[in-house]
Amino acid sequence: MTTTAERFERMRPVSRTRTAPIRPEDLPPGPRWPALVQSVALLRFRHQFIPAMHKRYGDVFSLDILPEGRFLVIFQRPEHVKEIFAGDPETFHAGKANAILGPVMGEHSLLLVDGATHKRARKLLMPAFNRQALHDYEAVVTAIAKAEVGQWQPGVPFRSLDRMNALTLEVILRVVFGVTSESRLARLRPLVNRTVNVSPAVFLGWSFPRLQQHGPWRRAFENQVALDEVIYAEIGERRRATDLESRSDVLSRLLQVTDAGPGEGGLSDDELRDQLVTLLLAGHETTATALSWALHELGRDPAQLTRARDAALSGDDDYLEAVLKEAMRLHPVIPMVVRHLMAPATIGGLDLPAGATVGASIILAHADPRNHPEPDRFRPERFAGGTMPANTWLPFGGGVRRCIGAGFSLMEGVAVLREVLSSYDVSLPAGRAEKPKVRNITSVPRHGSRIVVGRR
Q1: Segments forming the whole domain that contains residue 350
Q2: 98-113 b/e with 16+ CB inside 10 Å = b?
Q3: pLDDT digits over 47-106, tens only?
Q4: Which of 226, 313, 371, 413 is the most buried (most CB within 10 A)?
Q5: Of 279, 266, 284, whose CA–CA distance to 121 is shortest?
Q6: What is the dihedral of CA 224, 225, 230, 235, to 10 degrees?
């Protein structure tokens, strides 16, 4: 079993391979500010910085970023996005591009491995997210959503982001981890919340081990030690369980999966830990944020609220899914999908060198009127009938790296919206306009998406 300190050192986001230096003149144009300034702007002020660079340099531009001063080439046009997603996985590595997440997610994380290792991990995880598995999870999600919504007080403004985070965390802990012990749930909840609620500076700091002895970096590291302890204890107890076949949670399913090759086993404790943390971080705050934005948009538009409420009452889950997808389009939670080039590649007619990173910008693609007419309007009907043009809606990435939990996220979001809208009308209290704020690698409503509910 790998210790937290060993993982942090092993996964420190620094280059472990040498490539020829990249010359700025060999790349599309971009700002020539110091790499630190561009990295901070990208992580902390992405919703202003990325559109500003697009306005200045056009549909394709380059950024110089930390931890190594590597170059990131930003694309957004559908034909370019398609080339990135369809690129040879041996050349277009997603794991290296996501290296900043390594210390927390671990070397076995589905988001951090490439090639044959990624193919194996995805194959082992897929049974836990197939159609039958999602059907099994839905009843648990619905019960958790019903219990949460039943506690809301009509007429009292509250931060929907906080309640959605609490709800989706409960879903992850019970459906993915299979934790039912209230004492262990009580210990896990604050550890997970502290893992999620960190500033971008903490992620940048993983490149500098000495920072782990100070301030927020030390607290984040100590929190990871405590979280690892609980997760490994849960894995150990579950391995000793004699009723795995009757359990439907993801961890229990993964413990029963083995490789197809002769003599090969299933997932090790370290592999299980890394995949569970990946599912936790990738599937908790992202879905909660999308739901809080959906409630915000429904609360500010009575006509859309009426249509969504009617869909909830009539069982029209397709329209509720369209509401969730439109919230993800209008308010991207993740800024881009990235790949690291292990060899020279050509995208959009541009010859790019090995060592560069290419990014499909979700922020730009979702706001482009060529992709989405009237992009600033909340119009769930865009998604009716499956008419969305390919490679213009990117919350779950694409190609062989498309998010394995996409179906789970949409199922969960629809179940929650159904419970909320079957019980309440939603409106917005007086106050400041809601805007995105960067928290860790995601973007959340700055003021928590405050809403007021009222029984119909």
Answers
A1: 4-455
A2: bbbbbbbbbbbbbbbb
A3: 999 999 999 999 999 999 875 557 999 999 999 999 999 999 999 998 877 777 888 888
A4: 413
A5: 266
A6: 90
DSSP 250-288: HHHHHHT---SSTT-----HHHHHHHHHHHHHHHSHHHH
The two three-digit tokens of residue 176, written as one number: 């993915």
CATH (domain of 163): 1.10.630.10
- Say how far apart CA 286 and CA 213 lie, in whole Å: 30
Give whole-number Cα distances, 154 to 293, 445, 453, in Å. 19, 22, 5
Cβ proximity of 426 and 453 under 8 Å: yes
Q: What is the mean pLDDT of the chain?
A: 89
CA pair distance 341, 347, nearest whole angstrom: 11
And the tokens for 301? 């538009």
Q: Are strands 357-361 and 70-75 parallel, antiparallel or unpaired?
A: parallel
What tens digit of pLDDT does each residue of 250-300 get?
A: 899 888 887 654 445 678 899 999 999 888 888 888 999 999 999 999 999
Cβ neighbors of 135 (< 8 A, separation 6 or more) are none
Tokens coding 26: 């060999």
Under 8 Å between Cβ of 108 and 91: no
How many folded domains does the chain comprise? 1
Which H/E stretch holds residue 29?
none
Phi, psi for 231 (deg, rounded to 5) = -65, -45
What is the signed CA dihedral for 128, 129, 131, 137, rounded to 10 degrees?
80
